[in-house]
Specification:
Number of strands: 6
Strand content: 5-15%
Helix content: 55-70%
Shape: elongated
Number of domains: 2
Number of helices: 16
Oligomer: single chain
Radius of gyration: 29 Å
Structural class: alpha/beta
C-alpha cells in the first residue's frame, strides 16, 4: 500500500507543481467562456445590422404595404429603389449591385404573389436567421394587410387574429413547476463539455506519460520496485486526483461568482441564478460521472500507451478512443430535445456515452433513476 501511495503522490505532485497545470486551470474556463460569448456577440451585432435591399414587385400591389412593416419602420431594413426597365434587366442590374456591395440583396415579388407565388430573396448573406426572422414576417404581414383591405376588413383586426401564439414551457419537478427556457440546456451543455474536456485532457496525459516512460526506460526501473498493477493504478489515481483538483478549483470559483452575482444589486431582480438547475445532488453526480468517465477512458488511453512503442504510433492508435469521447457531444442535441425519450435513455446507458449524456439528462431535471420511458 505504501508503494501505491508513493506512485499516486509522485504522479499528483509532478503535475500539480507544473506550470502547465496553472496555465490550463486559468485558461480553460476563459476559453470556454470566450467560445460561448463569441457567437452571442456576433448574433447581437448581426441583429443590429441594417440591410439595404431593393424590391422588385411585379404584382404592383405590395410595395407600399411592405415598406409599412416593422422591419422597414424600425430601420432593420433600408429600402433602396431599383432602377427602371424591364424586370429581367432590373434583376440583372440589381445582381451587379449586390456583387459590388451597393446592396445587401433584393426581394423579388412575382405577379402571382397574392395567389401563392414564391417570393425570392437574392443577396450576399442568405442565412436562415435573416430570412425567417426578418424577411418572412415582413412579407407575410404585407400580404395579409393587402388581402384584408381587398376583402374590406380592418388590417389591425386581421393582425390580432393571425398573430402567433406563444407557448410557455414548464418543467415538472418535485418542488413544483418552474419556467424552463434556455437555462437547463445551457447548464447541461456546460457540464457535459467540462467532463469531455477534462477526460480528454487527462486521458491523453495518461497515454503520453506511458509512452514517455517506455521510451526513457524509466518503467523498467520502476517495475523493479513496484508491481505492474500498482504502477498502473497509482498513475490512474494520481492523474485522476489532478483532474478532481482542477474541477474543484473551477467549481469553487464559479460558486463564488454566483454568490457575488446573487448578492449584487444589479442581479436582485433576475431569476436566472435562483432557477439554475444545479443543486448539490447534480454536482455530486457530476463528480461521480467524471470519475467514471476518467477511469474508463484513462484505462483505455493507458492501454494504448502500453501497447504503442512511439508517440507516432500512439497518436494513430488513440483515434478510436478519442472518437468514443467525441460521439456523445454530437448526440447531446437529441438528449436535450427529449431527455426521457427511449433513444436518450438507451444512449445515456451505453458505458462509453454515460459520463457526458447522463449529466446532460440530469441537468435538465428530466433524468430518471429507474424507468426512462417517455409518456
Amino acid at each position: 500500500m505504501s508503494k501505491l501511495i508513493a506512485v499516486i503522490r509522485r504522479e499528483y505532485l509532478a503535475r500539480v507543481r507544473s506550470r502547465w497545470f496553472i496555465v490550463i486551470t486559468i485558461i480553460a474556463p476563459l476559453l470556454m467562456i470566450t467560445a460561448m460569448a463569441i457567437p452571442i456577440v456576433f448574433m447581437a451585432r448581426e441583429s443590429e445590422r441594417v440591410l439595404s435591399i431593393s424590391v422588385v414587385d411585379e404584382s404592383g400591389q405590395l410595395l407600399e404595404e411592405l415598406l409599412a412593416t416593422e422591419a422597414f419602420e424600425e430601420g432593420r431594413l433600408r429600402y433602396m429603389p431599383p432602377p427602371g426597365g424591364e424586370p429581367g434587366t432590373v434583376i440583372a442590374s440589381l445582381r451587379h449591385r449586390v456583387l459590388d456591395g451597393q446592396l445587401s440583396g433584393f426581394l423579388y415579388l412575382p405577379a402571382d404573389v397574392l395567389e401563392g407565388g414564391e417570393i425570392e430573396y437574392w443577396g450576399r448573406d442568405v442565412g436562415m436567421t435573416l430570412v425567417r426572422a426578418t424577411l418572412e414576417p415582413a412579407t407575410t404581414t404585407a400580404v395579409r394587410r393587402h388581402q384584408a383591405r381587398t376583402l374590406g376588413l380592418d388590417p389591425s383586426a386581421v393582425a390580432r387574429l393571425t398573430r402567433e401564439i406563444e407557448v410557455a414551457a414548464y418543467r415538472v419537478t418535485e418542488e413544483g413547476a418552474a419556467r424552463d427556457e434556455a437555462q437547463s440546456a445551457i447548464v447541461a451543455q456546460i457540464l457535459a463539455l467540462i467532463i469531455y474536456m477534462v477526460v480528454l485532457l487527462y486521458g491523453a496525459m495518461m497515454l503520453r506519460a506511458a509512452v514517455a516512460e517506455k521510451a526513457s526506460k524509466t518503467v523498467e526501473v520502476i517495475l523493479s520496485s513496484v508491481r505492474p498493477w500498482q504502477l498502473m493504478l497509482g498513475k490512474t489515481l494520481g492523474v485522476g486526483a489532478v483532474g478532481l483538483t482542477q474541477i474543484g478549483i473551477w467549481l469553487a470559483v464559479a460558486g463564488l461568482l454566483l454568490l457575488y452575482a446573487a448578492s449584487a444589486q444589479a442581479f436582485a431582480d433576475v431569476g436566472f441564478i435562483q432557477n439554475l438547475p444545479v443543486g448539490i445532488d447534480t454536482l455530486l453526480l457530476f463528480v461521480g460521472l467524471f470519475l467514471t468517465g476518467y477511469f474508463l477512458y484513462g484505462g483505455l488511453y493507458a492501454s494504448v500507451g502500453a501497447v504503442a512503442s512511439s508517440e507516432q504510433e500512439a497518436s494513430q492508435l488513440q483515434f478510436p478512443v478519442t472518437l468514443l469521447v467525441i460521439i456523445p457531444l454530437l448526440i447531446i442535441p437529441i438528449v436535450l430535445e427529449s431527455p426521457t425519450s427511449n433513444a436518450s435513455v438507451v444512449l445515456s446507458w451505453i458505458p462509453f456515452f454515460t459520463p457526458v449524456l447522463f449529466i446532460a439528462r440530469r441537468a435538465t431535471r428530466s433524468a430518471s433513476s429507474s424507468c426512462g420511458r417517455s409518456r
